[in-house]
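anyone seen this seq b4? input:
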Amino acid sequence: MASDKQLPTIGVLGGGQLGRMMIQSAINYNLEVHVMDPDANAPCKDIATSFRQGAITDHDQVYEFGKSFDFVTIEIENVNTEALKKLREEGVRVFPQPEIIELIQDKRIQKEFYKDHDIPTAPFVLTENAGEVRANASFLPAVNKLGKEGYDGRGVSILKSEDDLEKAFDAPGLLEKFVDFEKELAVIVARNSSGEIKSFPVVELSFHPVHNLVEYLFSPASISPHIEDKAQQVARDVIEKLDLVGLLAVEMFLTKEGEILVNEVAPRTHNSGHQTIEGNITSQFEQHIRAILDWPLGDTDIKIPSAMVNLLGEDGYTGEARYSGLSEVLAMAGAHIHLYGKRLTKPFRKMGHITIVDNDMKQLKEKAKLVKSKLKVIA
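predicted toks r here
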């Protein structure tokens, strides 16, 4: 790291808010970050070292984009992995590894991996179509998940009884036994090529009851030291068994019996780690960069308790985004606003997030609810 010329160049597939926040961390190290995204107005467009509009699922476009960089990484899993394999064969360092991206692209294969590697997860049945879901009605209540291309709450249907079977997906997927959980938790864990592993403290998530998007996140989670240790060990176990280099977000259920079950994982920066920008010594975005470049991993300790509120487009509004209540939130002690540079809003689109920091957990939760009620994205 003696001069700019010796610093590696990074290509990123996907130009959304995760890439945008990654670039904001990379700027501190004078790193070049080049981005490709299908959206000509993607959030990364104006802050990347270079930006290319292109299909990240197209083999030739991904290969042509990535071949001139030292490293290639992702901010979304829906990418062409065959092109990434070719780039790796030609000397580009690709993290997370293409085979791991493939595994995580299909929730069916992901669940089979947990089963085969003794990673605790809810019981499940693989299904090929809606008919097979109906044939497994005795497995209900369950969650029907599409194998591929489910994202941000899409591709997930809760089937509580046979009356809900009309909501079953007529495509390859799985039925996952419904977990009557105590809390939903997440651990973000990083691993570099040298094998160093560091994880962030467990966070607690609260989801929108209909749209399956995170509404609130609290760090640290309100759990016992025993549960904290158990969740940390599960997360580290998953990243080691995957042999993943990079960042891994591990979403978990804490059951009412005190067990930890892995729900899903994401091989990238994640909504469950946004609060690390203000709340932890190292942010998840900097940690991802450190991990893929094989730099020493950063300190993950909590600096101050934090909450994260997702800023979603209001239901009933589509068009040029306007922000109602911005002044009230700006005046709030400990509130940090992150807008994602998206010009257009639509119902439940992720438009930004707000991190609130406060040493008093009760005040923190009250402020989070106040932010949620005050700041609205309308058109």
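Residues 191 and 197 are 4 Å apart (CA to CA). The mean pLDDT is 95. kinda curious what u guys think
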